């Protein structure tokens, strides 16, 4: 609802039902977050810290949090519809990789175009790390403020490794073969287990691309683009990655193939790890800070004793991207302004306010995370401190390209066709090639075979 309509609604209610005071400004903020549910800490932070402090500093303003509990893709679709019709929240959480496609579709505008020159004067820009700053930039323009970044690793159930005769405290795989051998050892002593979780399939959306496909592909020394910015549609790296999926899910049943095809498959993968069905799970630090804490649905009992993490190895030592032995990838979310907001100055005031150190430190008190600002520390979290120090120096990021989202969907279909047994890796790659050519044009693709 537009602010004008909301103001009218408040006036009518006040005149007829004496429902409470009217406000000069009424702002809405949306995130994929629900207190007690998905991303609960984010919802708690906005509802209990950001909103009260902002309203106290701006007594003529009312801020309402819309808690969205659906999947990421559902929120993306809703925002695309809202922004295309001039509706939707004034401020919304937003995944940085979506910015190029929204901009090219006319659905987002630079912050300073929406709210004016005061955006450029915000002192917080200088405090953002270079990597996190890039998350919300497209063609040298800021479209949002990043909340934080992340890294990806291989989580381990140390109890299951120990049961398989592996020293869980010192185990650090240096190749894909090491991971497969560990999974086979676990499967031997626990026949009903699915030791490995490498996300696949359409249902998991971008979690398949980023927590699955990317983490294998980077280990082959490739990314989705070549050095000239062309989309790679045929390569040994793609085949090696798809054959890894085939080994895990089809040939040796080291992973739960059915979970990759279910609408709630990602939650099932979390439950499998929680319940000791899966021992080796490829995921982001989100899994530690948001999924497995005590009291959450997928909390791991005695987590800090039972759960560990290791770096993700390249296919073979030295074969990873940039000649690395280990690989990871970082993404991140932030908040953007609705380009059609009726109160752009006030919306920017809220967005910048929530990204000041005092508010971010309040968030860190609820849930420590890798921050976007260099002047906000990670408090009392050895896990996040150690993992960020180890992995941020070797990380990479998704391409800042408006076609990425559509290509990513084809990556998800390609992995699903292999995991389901529908297609061979060769045929799945051929289908992917044809789909990407339709999206970006043949001149913008390349085959390395």
Automatic annotation (TrEMBL):
Signal peptide span: 1-24
Subcellular location: Periplasm
Entry keyword set: Periplasm, Signal
InterPro entries: Bact_solute-bd_prot1, SBP
PANTHER family to which the protein is assigned, alphabetical: ARABINOSE-BINDING PROTEIN-RELATED, BLR3389 PROTEIN
Protein name: Extracellular solute-binding protein
Similarity comment: Belongs to the bacterial solute-binding protein 1 family.
Chief location category: periplasm
Keyword Signal: yes
């Amino acid at each position: 609802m537009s602010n004008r309509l909301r103001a009218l609604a408040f006036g009518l209610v006040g005149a007829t039902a004496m429902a409470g005071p009217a406000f000069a400004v009424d702002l809405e903020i949306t995130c994929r977050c629900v207190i007690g549910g998905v991303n609960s800490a984010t919802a708690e932070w906005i509802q209990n810290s950001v909103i009260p402090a902002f309203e106290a500093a701006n007594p003529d303003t009312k801020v309402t949090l819309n808690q969205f509990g659906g999947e990421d893709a559902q929120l993306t679709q809703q925002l695309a519809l809202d922004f295309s019709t001039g509706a939707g929240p004034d401020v919304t959480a937003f995944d940085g990789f979506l910015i190029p496609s929204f901009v090219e579709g006319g659905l987002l505008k630079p912050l300073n175009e929406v709210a004016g020159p005061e955006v450029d004067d915000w002192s917080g820009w200088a405090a953002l790390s270079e990597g996190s700053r890039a998350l919300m930039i497209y063609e040298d323009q800021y479209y949002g403020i990043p909340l934080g970044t992340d890294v990806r690793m291989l989580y381990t159930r140390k109890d299951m490794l120990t049961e398989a005769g592996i020293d869980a405290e010192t185990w650090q795989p240096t190749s894909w073969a090491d991971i497969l051998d560990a999974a086979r050892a676990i499967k031997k002593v626990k026949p009903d287990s699915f030791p490995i979780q490498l996300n696949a399939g359409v249902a998991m959306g971008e979690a398949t691309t980023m927590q699955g496909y990317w983490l294998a592909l980077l280990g082959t020394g490739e990314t989705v683009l070549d050095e000239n910015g062309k989309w790679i549609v045929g390569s040994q790296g793609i085949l090696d990655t798809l054959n890894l999926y085939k080994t895990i899910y089809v040939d040796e049943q080291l992973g739960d193939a059915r979970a990759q095809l279910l609408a709630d498959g990602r939650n099932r993968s979390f439950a499998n790890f929680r319940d000791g069905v899966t021992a080796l799970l490829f995921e982001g630090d989100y899994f530690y800070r948001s999924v497995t804490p005590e009291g959450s649905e997928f909390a791991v009992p005695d987590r800090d004793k039972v759960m560990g993490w290791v770096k993700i190895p390249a296919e073979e030592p030295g074969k990873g991207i940039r000649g690395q032995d280990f690989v990871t990838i970082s993404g991140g979310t932030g908040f953007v302004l609705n380009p059609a907001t009726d109160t752009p100055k006030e919306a920017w005031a809220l967005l910048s306010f929530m990204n000041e150190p005092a508010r971010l430190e309040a968030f860190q008190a609820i849930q420590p995370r890798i921050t976007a600002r260099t002047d906000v520390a990670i408090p009392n979290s050895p896990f996040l401190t150690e993992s960020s120090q180890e992995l941020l120096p070797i990380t990479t990021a998704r391409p800042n390209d408006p076609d990425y989202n559509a290509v990513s969907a084809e990556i998800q279909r390609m992995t699903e066709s292999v995991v389901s047994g529908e297609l061979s890796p060769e045929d799945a790659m051929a289908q992917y090639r044809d789909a990407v050519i339709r999206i970006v044009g043949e001149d913008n693709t390349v085959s390395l075979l």
